[in-house]
Specification:
This protein has 208 residues and is mainly alpha-helical. Helix content is 41%, strand content 7%. It is built from nine helices and three strands; from the N terminus they run H-H-H-H-H-H-H-E-E-H-E-H. Helix 4 packs across helix 5, helix 5 runs antiparallel to helix 7 and helix 7 packs antiparallel against helix 8. It is rod-shaped and about 90 Å long. The protein starts with a helix and ends in a 27-residue tail after the last helix.
Length: 208
């Protein structure tokens, strides 16, 4: 708040006493200086809640707003983030999409790709094990199994059991399947693009 604006709020007698060089005038200058940092924040307050504009230290807090805080779950508050802050921004930005498709193969695969930046996750449902899903992790994401497991547990339907495994032999299986069905096999994840749930000529999965 500018000094002139503060001064106009004072009674007339105080305004007359707030001339240059006066004690009251000096106090008004101090008040203006004290207000300046807060006003700067308020002038750009929307940046605090924009995933790609908010300060790095605020991104983890925003994950709570979109129900993705399980990604940063850690035993200690001062523990480092389990993924780069840029990936965390991607998850927050697509929080509404992930919430809509939670419980579906598309939702789980998209969350895994956004968090790791790696494509090629394969989800299988063994015929001899109903209500069970095997998540095959591509080799490029094999060093992030703890993160992958937390995401899988959160994204799966409650009645489904899961098994997370790495199998180099299956690397690229997801891409081969996409090529066979005519679906784009390379998914650009992150700020650039999130793949649509299904090609136009196929029915999309309904969110659970």
């Amino acid at each position: 708040m500018r000094r002139a604006a503060i001064e106009r709020l004072l009674p007339a007698a105080y305004q007359r006493a707030a001339g240059p060089g006066s004690v009251l005038g000096a106090l008004l200058d101090v008040m203006e200086a004290l207000h300046a940092p807060d006003e700067a924040v308020l002038a750009d307050v929307d940046a605090l809640f924009a995933p790609y504009r908010t300060p790095d230290g605020f991104v983890a807090y925003l994950t709570r707003w979109v129900a993705m805080d399980h990604v940063v779950a850690a035993p200690r508050a001062d523990a480092p983030l389990p993924l780069p802050v840029g990936r965390l921004r991607d998850l927050v930005a697509h929080g509404a999409l992930l919430a809509r498709w939670r419980g579906t193969p598309y939702g789980m695969r998209t969350a895994l790709e956004l968090a790791t930046g790696v494509t090629g996750f394969a989800l299988e449902e063994p015929a001899d094990r109903p209500f069970h899903v095997v998540v095959r992790v591509p080799p490029a994401a094999a060093d992030r199994l703890a993160l992958v497991t937390r995401i899988v547990e959160a994204e799966k339907p409650a009645a489904v059991t899961v098994e997370v495994t790495t199998d180099p032999a299956d690397a690229g299986a997801d891409e081969q399947e996409g090529a066979a069905t005519g679906v784009a096999s390379v998914r650009a994840v992150g700020r650039a693009h999130v793949p649509s749930p299904a090609p136009p000529d196929q029915p999309s999965e309904e969110p659970s």
